[in-house]
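for the writeup, i need someone to sanity check this before i put it in the appendix. the sequnce is what the collaborator sent (i think, or maybe the updated version? ugh). structure was predicted straight from it, no edits. if anything looks off just tell me and ill rerun, i have time this weekend
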Amino acid sequence: MKINIPTRIVYFSMDELDKWVMGDRENCQDPYCKKLSGSKGFGEFIAGRYFESLGYEWIHHDYNVFGGNKLGKYPKAETIFRSYFGDDRYEKGREFYPNFSPFMRIEEPDLLVYKPDYSEVRFVECKRMDTKDRVRDSQIKGLALLKLLFDCPIEVIEIVEGSRASEMGEPLVWEF
């Protein structure tokens, strides 16, 4: 079986990165992302801002769909998941990963991206090319698992220095 994972290239300026590193983050809507030090969270912010321009909202880190955390730890994300997937599907999906975790490493993507009315949910892994960040096998497995379990859009965003409009990149293919 093959799973194609779309890749999109989103650009940033060095001025934006410099402002982020200096702590200028008032235009970041994600509380977790805002509190990270140095350049951490910058790629997620750039990807999140891209999705905001398309009418989405986003959460960096503060969600758990695979079942590694107790229910109620991330109430906003849980509300989104229950609304979009339904209680039964969400809770059954959370049971899947704990059964596999002793045998294989799977990571949840960086961002939960959703429409404000919860009519759409997608998951996004962010990679900054200026830091030579690359998608790890455990991250690809996480994206693939989300696609298989929940049949929702998944995507990798490559964050690149430049001033062009976003564009599609080469898809990643995971075979098993």
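The two ends are 6 Å apart (CA to CA). The helical segments are 14-21, 31-34, 42-53, 75-85, 87-100, 137-150.
thx in advance!!
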